[in-house]
Amino acid sequence: MGWIHRTWGGPDELARSGCAWAAFQGDRIVAVACTYFLSTAYEDVARATVPDPRLQYLALDCVNALCSDIAARGHTPSWTCSASNRPGRLPAWTAGFRPEREYAHYAVGAPATRGSAAAG
């Protein structure tokens, strides 16, 4: 689940951000939803869960709680994934998100490194 806290600078920073919900099994995080990208009007939601189908609804609960927090902050929750990303689209649909537009993502050069202005 390391990718999910990358835009916050690490797990500690994400935990302190107030922009995440997690589900635990004992002392282990098994599902998390967080604001992945934050703008002045939108907060793009990301979620991750351990690969156990019995725990999938915990991720949905985290997404729903996060979306309530996002709305309380006066922002609009968004969910971004490619049209071909069925594993990403299915939980978005289940959480109530509906497609607004399709996109193509192009990149040139090396990926951005930690600490750069462009995270992703």
Itemize the secondary structure elements and their pairings.
Elements: H1 11-17, E1 20-25, E2 28-38, E3 42-49, H2 56-72, E4 76-78, H3 86-94
Parallel strand pairs: 3-4
Antiparallel strand pairs: 1-2, 2-3
What is this entry, summarized?
With 120 residues, the chain is of the alpha+beta class. It has three helices and four strands; from the N terminus they run αβββαβα.
Structure explained in plain terms:
- The chain has 120 residues and is of the alpha+beta class.
- The two termini are 14 Å apart.
- It has a 4-stranded mixed beta sheet with strand order 1-2-3-4, sandwiched between helices.
- It has 3 helices and 4 strands.
Helical content class: 25-40%
Number of H/I helices = 3
Strand order of the largest sheet: 1-2-3-4
List segments where confidence is low: pLDDT < 50 over at least 5 consecutive residues.
113-120
Average pLDDT works out at 84
Which sheet architecture does the biggest sheet show?
A: 4 strands, mixed
β-strand number:
4
Output the structural class: alpha+beta
Shape: globular
Beta-strand content bin: 15-25%
Features:
single chain; 120 residues; alpha+beta; 3 helices; 28% helix; globular; disordered C terminus
